[in-house]
Write a structure and sequence with these properties.
67% of the residues lie in helices and 0% in strands. By secondary structure, the chain is mainly alpha-helical.
Length: 113
Amino acid sequence: MSQSAVVKTISYLQDHASLSGVDVANISRVSKSTVSRWSNGMAAPNPRTQLVLSDLKYVVDRLGDFYSADEIRLWLFSGNDLLDGKKAIELIHEDRTDQVLQAIDSLDSGAYL
């Protein structure tokens, strides 16, 4: 992911999931000032963090079919029955995005309303 792609990803997450710089920092497990440097194109996250941000963007994009930006933020940070009470954000960070996507597929199929 290039620096400009990182900038676009962070902007997308802010616009489409109401995520603040602090949220992105907490998700990425870095400081808010680090996220600020990424947002300004002055630095780039390590490859592992780039993967987390990329997965998060994909999840947010999928959730956009069902929820508003504020609802997406809540869905990401709340315990979820579809995820056995776990938070989507934790699973994404643990490289278990596939489980989050399966939960979204359940929403898409109308299996859980």
